[in-house]
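Handout, section 4.2: multi-component inputs.
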Amino acid sequence: MASTSVVDELKKTQILELLDQGKRVDGRALDEYREISIETNAIPKANGSAKVRIGDTEVICGVKIQPDRPFPDTGDKGIFICTAELLPLSHPTVETGPPGPDVIELARVVDRGIRESHMIDVSQLVIEQDKSVVGVFADNVVVDYDGNLFDACSYAATAALLSSKTPKWNMVNDVPTLVEGEESPVPITTIPVSVTMGKIGDHIIVDPNGDEWASMDARVTITSNSDGNICALQKGGRGGFTLEEMIQCGEISVRVGAKIREKLKEAQQGGQ
Amino acid sequence: MGGREATMVLLDENGIRCDGRKVDEPRRIMIKAGGLKNADGSAYIEFGENKILVGVFGPRDVHPKHMSNTDTGILRVRYHMEPFSVGERKNPAPSRREIEISKVIKEALEPAVMLEKFPRTAVDVYIEVLQADGGTRCAALSAASVALADAGIPMRDMVAAIAAGKVADTVILDVNNEEDQAGQADMPIGYMPSVEKITLLQLDGVLTPEEYKKCVEVGVNGCKIVYDLQKKALNDKYFGSGED
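Output:
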């Protein structure tokens, strides 16, 4: 995914030359997102799921909800965990085996964006305090790669969570026991949207595609919530941003994010 | 009949199974060739409630190098289930079951693929089970054959696969999850219809010699149904219609 080849170097020159004329390789404006398609309930056996396509990047997220033991220091809260994995069929350079640093960063950034927005009200996910809570697991798998996995995984997880229904459990003889036929939506407080921008030369571009991703000097992923506030940020890559650029990126992420939030809401309603 | 209400009726008095099928009727099968951009070949199969995606790469360089063979190409298969594919969340790390299934699928495909034409290279087959509902190895093997063909890799034939089995003392075709759990036998079969060779065969459960013979026959006939759908998937992609 991140290996640089001779072809990438040649593409980088071409991408930079085009950007100097205000153009992108695929004809988009610098702050223009690719077509996003969101399909919810793609995996009926999951408690919620979504398939998200951004250009040729495709991610499937399945949400599993089940009773779990609380963490010792937060016995009054449920558990939310989001993971991401690059499947070997997503790209010729992806190998099986334990995840490398890039994938670990991906999973953690996607998890953090959703966690820090407090999208899920985990205080409502307690079966019995200090004993048993509800665990919500959102597992992302990357199926096809064309850049910007941060946003693709984030939207897939968010859409899957919005479409999720949680079963209900009661404590019976100290064991969490399923209450048949009682399902409710997962308690949602806000809809976080991450927007990833790349920096190539002095240009900031929104939603880098695969070729642009391989040519970037630096990137930043900024997550905003429904109130238009920024709730998580991750800078990556070897290059740097100026203060002005970072402020600009913040504005772009909130503006672009608002449009994408509407898409996520539509997908939620469409999937019901 | 009164006593049977307590458990699931796997086969009713009219010969209808728990999901409404007849004894020799497979589940709904949909196979699509292609679909992934980066893979050299790919396929997607829906087999009842199973949803499986397969991507193929190669022939390509072998890493680590010592695995390569100067006389022939090698086939590598990974069968993997997503954490959300089953009722209880599955640990994403490969289980012993997945490692074993990877091996039997590899050995089922090897006779079909002309690996000797590509010495020192590897063909990698990645199978991702998005949703599992009994019979994943057969569905995965059928889809993997289509993905290999889609990758343009020379093959003697495609391997089609389906399970035969026994419930309520009756031989059935295409064992679903409930029948696998509560039934008497499960026999996955992989078969190359044009070459007439069985390349995968497993069994758990007890069968009389007659039942065993019947199971293999029913399974091989079932494979021919799957085979037609595999060919149709390739026809649909490369010739634009299911009929040629």
